[in-house]
Amino acid sequence: MTEPDRTILPLSAPEFAGTANHTLRGSEPDWNLIRHPEPPQGAPNVLLVLIDDAGFGNPSTFGGPIQTPNYTRLAEAGLRYNRFHVTALCSPTRAALLTARNNHAVGFGSVGEFSSGFPGYTAMLPLECAPLPRILRDNGYSTAAFGKWHLTPDGQQGPAGPLGRWPNGWGFDYFYGFLGGDSGQWDPCLAENQKIIGTPAEYYDEENPYYLPDAMADKTIEWLHGVRGQEAHKPFFVYFSTGCSHAPHHVASEWADKYKGQFDQGWDRLREEVFERQKRLGVVPEDAELTPRDDAIPAWDDVPPRLQALYARQMEVYAGYSENADHNVGRVIDAIEELGELDNTVVIWIWGDNGASLEGTVTGSFNEMTMQNGIPLTDEMQLQLAERYGGNESWGGPIMDPHYSAAWAWAGNTPFKWGKQVCSHLGGTRNPMVIHWPERIVEPGGLRSQFTHVTDVGATILDIAGIPAPTRVDGVDQEPLHGFTFADSLVDEAAPETHTQQYFETIGNRAMYQDGWWLAMRTPRIPWVVTPEALRPYAPDVWDPDADPAELYYLPDDFTQAHDLAADHPEKVQDLKDLFWQEAEKYKVLPLLATLSSFFGITPPLDDTDTMEFRGDVQNVAPGMIPRIYNRSYAISADLVVPDDGVEGVIVAEADHLGGFSLFVDAGRLTHTYSMMGVFVYRQQADSSLPTGEVNVRMEFAADAAKPATGGQVTLFVNDAPVGGGRMDHTVPMRFSAYSGMDIGRDNGGVVDLSYADRRPFAFTGTVKKVVFDVKPHLSVEDEQAVHKLAHHAHAAHGISG
């Protein structure tokens, strides 16, 4: 069989080489016509594992406090890479990993939730940049992805698509996981292939509760067995991308309890302990220096003793959560070994798509979304809210969506400065990588210190598979790969660096690497502060990036960025600044801070539709696709059929008790519950029961003003008559949830109002004919008068003490 031209995809079908006479007499078939494309001879299986939101100093394999026996097992039989770099943010790293191209060049200058109208920030993969799974699939691989995706724009995560930006559209034959940036591990809203399947049925089994990391491993093993049951030798490419250790930090208590008391010494001492172990392991040079704590992070000794127990539990949960991820990756590796294929499987395991996340703020939070919504939590609030939702022992369970303190993240990035979002410093961009491939790695247990970058992974996989980067796909000329293969380093510790120059940019933070020199340009903004005051200095007519301080490091002599050489080498500072701007223009990084454009009023034009109508049993509407009810007046109305014996259940619900709303019927009365991130919870209920038959119900929110987190008045109506209401002093300014969807006729997964938690999903027992959202409602004069009257006896529970 003639070797096909692999630079053009899809591969051309071979010409018929048999004989076709008028009849079968004398005709000869050509069996090559019905064979699927085959990879080059000897192409190995590939298991690509990506852990989320984790730091260089987290796994024990690299000296951290979290026990990672499976990671260590592969490292001891393979190689550790201690100078591997990512982009400092979730979606950008994933886009670079799966395309072997710089993240801005493929539209992912930021996360998919912040898609904008600038080329480097669209969150839409260009046709000129065919991704790695598509290349492998067209060259004869079976491909599958499990877990976190985060590469589909917010507004495209429904049945209308376009589905080409879902995992199958990127070249995966099979997908099981979640499309957004994070997920609850107990109650995820899942997708399978090109369908949202929502919260799995097992979630409602209290005796055997569902847990996403376990299910990911189960599904991966099931898929591998299915592939091998059909094709004994076809190579596979599995992308196993854990939701761990991104918030919410969800794990069963038995995993967290393994670490009881192990973090009572606090983050300062923990960093020192980790640094000592890193030197003993050799993953950090003996002459390296531990970088100091920034003033933005408190000293452990300054934390009031009454808070230290809560803070220690935060880290215990994070550690147990992370160890569980190692366990489930180990299950997949065991399954490959049981198939007899581990020797011929290249395992590339990256511990973190960015440094550990600083987004929990200094206090940490019982609800990860409080930071994104700009809700500051004081120490006292944190204690009260944690207690409200079950106390320290409930941290990690389904009642909270927790995130640990930024100080623990800083410790997780030992020995470097900063963390996630801060690509100017290694705490945000340098993560552990282990590669295991017994067929090629002849001296196991080694350390590799060549500069490597996330764009290099795809280039290396293609190289070792013997597959060229295509020049043309579906008739479209392709952008060359930006990454460089490091395959030679698998067999040669002294292999030369192939990646000698790389820019970094994340939310205005910048760095330029060239031949060992690293220019760091960090904006003064603290990563976990997104208040208007914090963003004001970065407004379009205010911020001058050249005014940001520049630090210069020579990494071959300074592994941790401990010695700023900028004052000694001003000419090198300027050269690298100039180079950064050249690279920024070349790879579509400009304009800087496009990620924050919506915060400065640069938003896409809204369509002319002021109403959205949902008919029938619509479920699992993605949180980024719900009607735009934030920071304004709006109304929700529903046409119902109420049976003669009455009705109960949810009419429409978004998200859960940690942020969301539900319009439902309880004890026959129309009820509205609104959770402002679980910090303030408001509830209004009608004074009388619903009538039977055809009924229209409506909830109207009259905002005080069109501004973030506006307060306002709620009024409930039945058949246009006001029946109840109350005031809400605060509303959610940005987003209720990162993962929990909106449902018509039920409340899937975690529920908004805990009073019906024991009846979940609390399906409506009548008929919901349609639900309509109106984002421009106007109360009549009569209705306004009724509102004031009802306000005197409205029922509303809110605030810290509510």
From TrEMBL:
Superkingdom classification of source: Bacteria
Supply the Pfam families for this chain: Sulfatase (PF00884)
- Which InterPro entries is this protein grouped with? Alkaline_phosphatase_core_sf (IPR017850), Sulfatase (IPR050738), Sulfatase_N (IPR000917)
Domain Sulfatase N-terminal, residue spans: 44-467
Family membership: Belongs to the sulfatase family.
| Name of protein | Arylsulfatase
